Structures are given as structure tokens and as C-alpha cells.
Amino acid sequence: MIFVTGATGILGRIIVLELLKRGKQVRASKRPGSNINEVKHSYSFYTENPDDFFNKIEWINVDFDDLDSLKTALQGVDEVYHCAAKVSFHPKDEKEMYHTNIKGTENLLYACEESDVKKFLHVSSVAVLDNFNEKGELDEDSDFNPKLEHSAYAISKHLSEMEVWRASAEGLNVIIINPGMIIGSGNWHQSSGELFSTFEDNSFTFSGGSAYVDVRDVANTAIGLMENNLFGERFIIVAENNRYADLARQIRTRLGLKEARILSQTELNIGRLANALFGWLIPKLKMVTRSNIEAISSFNTISNHKVKEKLNYQFIPVKESIDFHLNNYINDKKLKK
């Protein structure tokens, strides 16, 4: 039995689906209020027989603050894919994010100690990578630098990794993956699922960029790494490094919208000043922090060489990925009209 946490999220649901396609038994965590019908609907984008796969999932409500709940979820489980996490860059979410991402991971690993779990894959983020290699790229050896300013999200993912490495030192077979920005279908208004609505709703963009990867690639590489028992290592999972302006152009052109304007550094700094003065009054201004400005203004090259070499893997081109998922986004919007 394989246990997948965060199974209603944009990545967790596809790891579940890909495992089911391989004939595995899957137990999937959810919250009591989770909309699993939305998960079933999104499967229609990825397979011709979504109901057949969805009906094979053993759903279980899990409280990550309750060790008994976690121990129950792990009964009969020998592999864990830990996808559950809180993703946010808003200061109001910091406390919840630290609790969910760090304490939730710590509790899950503690529950694994008294179970039959033999393999554990942890989903982290490229946000924890800092030091550049001799090529000027970020890679698996780019350790987190605590002297630099980071978002609360990046700090929470770094500290989550520390919990996983601690478990590794105590004998658990672990793998950490560090995906870039995940492009997927469904869950359109949460976490990575907001990609298309964000570019649609905003007529401006930023000078920097990010590393992107299709959700199907993240799921398949994660499973491939576990099947190949590549323990005690981390793997960056990205397809390409792209500027926000290029993605905005592709998405907004397809939606029939005018090209987004790139905000200048001066405008961003004015926004940060406005946050200091009026953030208490206008919640959206709270997002304009120093670490967030740095993130949206920078454009680093992140290497995917290691995972491509280890698994002989070819990633879906970002343009192709955007076209596929944007088409699903447009079709879903039509369905709701």
C-alpha cells in the first residue's frame, strides 16, 4: 500500500493517478471538507476512464496534529509520498504555513517510525536553493543560506527538509524532490493552480522569471526515483527557466487579452512603501515585501541535469504544457457559464 498526502492538491492527485495506472494500491489523505469530486473531474483531463481510476482510491481523513490519526493512515503502508503543504507568499499565512509544513512533516515522520514504511519521498521546492555552482546555476548542491532574506514559504520548506534529513540519518530511506512552479489542471484557485487566473486577471507582470515544470513530469519523475531506490539524495524537477513576461504573453494572447506591462523596480519600491503606510488598510499591499520583490525581479537558471541523467528523462516543453493546461482551464470556465 502506498500513502499519498495532499492528494487533493494539484500534484498529489496526479501522483495518485500515475500510481494507479501502474496497478498500485493507493491510500490518499484529505481533509474532511475537501472537494474530491473536483479531483475526479480533473482526472478527465488526463485519462479516458477517470471514474475507473478514481474509484480505486482509498480516501482517508487525516489530521496532521493527531499522531493517532497519522498512525491509522499508515497501517499496512510501505511507501509514502508527502505532498501536503501550505503554499503562500502572504504574511498573514506565515504562522499556518510554518505549522503545516514543518510540524506536519515532523509528525508524519514520527508516525513512520512506528510503522512498516520503508520508502519516503518528500516534495520540497526550488525556493530553498541559494548558492550558485561554477556555471552560475542553482543545482542540488545549492544549499540554503540562512544569511539571505527568504520568504516564509522558503524557510518553512527548508526546515521541513531538515526534518526529512534527520529521519534519513536515523535510517529511513528518503528522497527529496525540489520542483519548480508546477503547471497543472484543476484546483484552479489554490497554490500553483492559480497560474492561469493570475495571468488572466492582471494586466501587469514582472521582470524576473522562474523555473516551470508540468505536473505529469513531477509525478512521473517522483515515482521513477522511488522505483529506482535513489535514496539519501535530492533532485531538482524543472523543465525550463522562463521569464514571467513570456508566459504572460502566451497565456494572455490565447485568452484574447492585451499584452501585460512589466512593472519597473521603481513601481515595486513604491508599492513596498505603500505597504508600510497602508498595508493595514489594504490587505493586497501586504504582499509587497522585500523578499517577494526580490523573488519576482530575479531570474536564476536552475539545472535539471541530475534527474535527466539518472532517469534518462525528457521533460514536456513549457510551451506545450501551457497549451495543454490552458485549454483545460478555458474549457472549465465554459462549463461554469
From TrEMBL:
Name of this protein: Nucleoside-diphosphate-sugar epimerase
InterPro entries assigned: Epimerase_deHydtase, NAD(P)-bd_dom_sf, NAD(P)-dependent_oxidoreduct
Domain called NAD-dependent epimerase/dehydratase: residue spans: 2-228
Domain of life of the source: Bacteria
Any one GO MF annotation of this record: aldehyde dehydrogenase (NAD+) activity
A Pfam family matched in the record: Epimerase
GO CC aspect terms: cytoplasm
